[in-house]
UniProtKB/TrEMBL annotation:
Keywords: Decarboxylase, Lyase, Pyrimidine biosynthesis. InterPro entries: Aldolase_TIM, OMPdecase_AS, OMPdecase_type-2, OMPdeCOase_dom, RibuloseP-bd_barrel. The keyword Lyase applies. It comes from the Bacteria. The active site is at 97 (proton donor). This is Orotidine 5'-phosphate decarboxylase. It is an enzyme of class 4 (lyase). One of its GO terms (biological process) is 'de novo' UMP biosynthetic process. It catalyses: orotidine 5'-phosphate + H(+) = UMP + CO2. It holds the Pfam family OMPdecase. It comes from Streptomyces fumanus.
Amino acid sequence: MNEPFGARLRRAMDERGPLCVGIDPHAALLAEWGLADDVAGLERFSRTVVEAVADRVAVVKPQSAFFERFGSRGIAVLEQTVAAARAAGALVVMDAKRGDIGSTMAAYAESFLRPDAPLYSDALTVSPYLGYGSLKPAVDLARESGCGLFVLALTSNPEGGEVQHAVREDGRTVGATVLARLAAENAGAEPLGSFGAVVGATLGDLSAYDLGINGPLLAPGIGAQGAAPADLPRVFGSALRDVVPNVSRGVLRHGPDVSALRGSADRFADEIRSVLAAA
Ligand SMILES: O=C(O)c1cc(=O)[nH]c(=O)n1[C@@H]1O[C@H](COP(=O)(O)O)[C@@H](O)[C@H]1O
């Protein structure tokens, strides 16, 4: 069995810093890079991002939607992207945000978390909003394969609150319940559990939530959605050390030049390092 994802992630964060660069080939970015909105453009874009950052950041996060747009040939590019990024030493979080009834969830888990699957990744983003228990097949397979999950808890988008801040009969919010489930999943894991939460960097003060889940906190929202590395201490408080800040468009807009992309990722990484050192 692989070493558990949480242990591999903690080491990568220690060695490379915690930054995650998203690989999000938006049609608008392909156009800005002078690429056609087709499979060749997608392939060129993804290869360039991997070349620029996968040897220096802890994590890359391909966003499956932008590959699925091109059908089976887009998925083939996604497979190549995952393999190339892992070969360059980055951990790959597949951002596919899967969530379904348990029996179907088992098939989603096999698609991304079974070591012989073509899209095998180090971790997968999943949605608990069919009920946290529906994720059990993914939790079980992740444990067995040494993979991780990132479970949507408090998302970065303004609409998320209507579900995630809703108060249950027991007085707890739905988002707090997801966090508590993850803390239970990670109990006793060292140096870090493999079951992470997605918590937006855009959300401001989250002191009402217990973010101490002994697992990683994937924090999208920096750059294009308006948050900055300097916001992280206020949002994450004492859980700051477990935060994996994600930047997608904020880095990608600097392409297609490899050294400009790399420079942008390095600047975000440096800024995050200083924020962590000062906290
Ligand atoms: O799971 C995610 O990664 C995610 C969760 C969330 O709450 N908000 C969020 O923006 N994301 C993803 O993070 C990336 C953010 O991209 P940028 O806004 O371009 O940095 C996109 O791929 C989103 O799909």
